[in-house]
Amino acid sequence: MTSQIVLFAQSRSGSHLLERMISKQQPDVKPLYNPLGPSRGIQLGWLRSETFADGMQQDKMSEFEASTHDAVAEWEGELSRAPSEGRKLIIHTHPFNPAKPSRMLHYVKLLETRPQPPLPPEGENFTLLPDTLLLREGTVPIINIRDPRLVVPSAYRVLDSFGLPHGGGRPNFLIATCPIWARLLYDWYISHGVHPLVADADDFMTSEDFVRRICSRAGLDPALACFAWEELTPDEKAKLHPMYYKSQKTLVDSCRVRVELAGRNLNLEELKGEWEEKFGEDMRLVREMVDLSVPHYEYLYERRMKL
């Protein structure tokens, strides 16, 4: 029986849409959205600092670890209470949020000398999350991916709208867009005999049957999958956090799944041709992030869930 669904979302991969489709109408689902958000703020400050290459300073490391510890305590508390409420927990976060700073730094430094650095040892938990939480009996991990040619430009635009130009700096842009973290989580779960559900955005954006299949595999009622909803009123939109609205504007302004925005319904090569005009001097940075992401995306795509 499912105890928790952990949605590990690649940035700009349609994860909020996926979560809505599989859980919005499920009466026995209890959402816990990104308890690791505060620690991400500490992580971002380090990634953008001039001393990034020296590692996270000890005072910030202590703050980061304490924030992650608090998030784990909240997560475990909600997870322990959910059964008595007759519910299962769904957690939505990014794979890189709880990553150990030492692993992040190791990866970024390797990229300075190698096109694709070797992966850490198979079976390594690169996060600060305890194995006992990630492997709790009844856990269903979902790893959400999307074509890097869509993810990277979208992340650039959103970060710019947040006042973080140039992707918030190369280290942050790399960490936030490259699906290596999702790949490492996938391999880690496999090494423990757990098979994550890898969901590509094109599949869940274009196939209702695929979404119902995810529900079934995750212990949810496939008959309650959600494909349309009431659009928020102007007053409701005004109450949203500005950063949330900027990052989720397409979803917030919608009343249904926007099938036409799936990658397979777009001319991706034509969109790549527009990068120079859209990104100017940063086109090279955008292209680099796409190229670094592709091998890890393809690895996961080959292992994605199918009907």
UniProtKB/TrEMBL annotation:
InterPro entries: P-loop_NTPase. It comes from the Eukaryota. This is Sulfotransferase domain-containing protein. It comes from Polychaeton citri CBS 116435.
